[in-house]
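Hi V.,

Quick status before I head out on leave. The structure for the redesign project is tokenized and pasted below; the design run finished overnight.
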């Protein structure tokens, strides 16, 4: 658990100070040095325009992790609110909300995000909206399921009989019980958001050039994949490592919460 937490800390630290560690301007073009192999000057080589890949990866950390944090946070807030509405509302409202949720879940998340981003024309705002609209459903299901299980608890029944408002019930009785499970779901959705951002960037619907986002770097490197495969390998490895670390953190957190619950 400690080693995983350390890796997550390093990851988020890089998203904050990574651009400060970059040896070069990530958008500076050096045509004479284009497609250079790794060397003492260019530690990870350069791309087709002679831009330093290491500098672009470090700056891309802020783009990819920062956007993933915003998207997963929006999904968490929206999904939790919708799930609590379903759990605390009447049966008709619950049925309507869950049918809408099931309708969203019926479509593959990434395909739906690509369609939405494509219709909106691409760009950062379209990226955030597309991935947020396809990420709230899992939070809503978890919040509703736990919320329904809490309705028969003695303290919740007594609070209802005492005339406590639904807002106070949600704030003081439901949210504290929901938080551990929602945090575990959030780690999984955070990793999905990173993949979604990279996928949309690779398809040209995400962060637009010359901003050094990992998916955009993969798109730029695709044409030169055979001549300079490292140009694609570096951002691909970076995405895989980030997703793996965050998923491991989610698994460790889930096991820790399960162990605590069994004590």
């Amino acid at each position: 658990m400690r080693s995983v937490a350390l890796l997550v800390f390093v990851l988020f630290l890089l998203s904050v100070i990574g651009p400060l560690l970059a040896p070069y301007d990530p958008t500076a073009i050096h045509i004479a040095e284009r497609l250079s192999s790794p060397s003492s000057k260019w530690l990870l080589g350069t791309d087709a325009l002679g831009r330093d890949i290491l500098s672009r990866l470090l700056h891309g950390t802020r783009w990819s992790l920062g956007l993933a944090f915003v998207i997963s946070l929006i999904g968490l807030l929206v999904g939790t609110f919708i799930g609590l509405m379903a759990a605390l509302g009447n049966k008709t409202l619950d049925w309507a909300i869950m049918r809408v949720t099931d309708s969203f879940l019926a479509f593959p998340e990434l395909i739906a995000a690509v369609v939405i981003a494509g219709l909106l024309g691409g760009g950062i705002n379209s990226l955030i909206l597309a991935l947020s609209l396809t990420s709230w459903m899992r939070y809503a299901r978890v919040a509703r399921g736990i919320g329904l299980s809490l309705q028969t608890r003695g303290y919740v029944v007594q609070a209802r009989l005492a005339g406590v408002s639904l807002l106070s019930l949600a704030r003081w009785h439901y949210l504290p019980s929901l938080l551990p499970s929602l945090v575990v779901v959030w780690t999984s959705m955070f990793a999905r958001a990173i993949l979604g951002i990279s996928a949309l960037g690779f398809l040209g619907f995400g962060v637009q050039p010359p901003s050094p986002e990992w998916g955009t770097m993969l798109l730029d490197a695709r044409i030169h994949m055979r001549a300079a495969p490292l140009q694609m390998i570096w951002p691909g490895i970076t995405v895989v490592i980030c997703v793996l670390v965050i998923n491991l953190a989610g698994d460790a957190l889930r096991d820790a919460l399960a162990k605590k619950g069994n004590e």
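Above is the designed sequence. The chain has one domain: 2-8+47-262.

G. will cover questions while I'm gone.

Best,
W.
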